Amino acid sequence: xxxxxxxxxxxxxxxxxAGLVAAGHTVTGLARSDAAAARLESLGAAAHRGSLEDHxxxxxxxxxxxxxxxxxxxxxxxxxxxxxxRDRGAIEALGGALAGSGKPFVSTSGTxxxxxxxxxxxxxRPDPQGIAGFRIPGEEACLGFxxxxxxxxxxxxxxxxxxxxxxxxxxxxxxxxxxxxxxxYVGDGTNRWPAVHRLDAADLFRxxxxxxxxxxxxxxxxxxxxxxxxxxxxxxSGLGLPTAGLSPQEAAAHFGSPFMATVFGADVPxxxxxxxxxxxxxxxxxxxxxxxGDGDYLTAPAA
Length: 303
Prior knowledge:
7-stranded parallel β-sheet; 12 helices; 2 domains; 303 residues; alpha/beta; Rossmann fold; single chain
């Protein structure tokens, strides 16, 4: 299969591109810079110059492929409406080029679209007031193409996609612990976070392209929910720092904003049982706590 990929030079993207190439697929990746093009080419993919705002370039890339994987996401996070416009516009351009073809179109979202406080399944409705509610219009736009002759599906990734060089949420926690001298959690730390290793996520994206039925919602979570106190404890132990529970007000100052305090204090477990059954996805890589202890989180220079 010839796959057109957006976001292939980002944090998770290179593992996905490499996995697709290793499985025998041909990959062309969207590149908005020389550095992104060079990264894609080093992974065995071809580069297609353009950006998420260049809808003509997106349509051309999608039309020339046998399937599309959309992972890129960006914009001004202080302006959620801008994030929605950019993502939905890109999805409509990509999906429109595939309409009536029966080709696969996999778009990316996050499990933080789900309601907090209970374990969410793939069939549960997302919460528009959720932490990542701004991702829901993109999900809806992609899944809408299932009724337009496209094998469209959505992969919701866990908030923590861990692995070497991670500068996401766990990388932020490590950097904050180093800066403040405390590895902190919010409240009693019993809130749960799902997690998935980057290579397991790459396997899931490949399987979704190869065989996800039209209209599928998939959860990229190898671990349903790791207690946040255990995450903070693993970081503190590795850095030789104390751990501490903070009130929401204290956490806002510690983590840099009320929003980040809300994110790190959220109880957001999810199930991936249906995803595993549907696609035969079987995560095999180390879990989050093992990766914190044995990976490069505590030794790599701060990003």
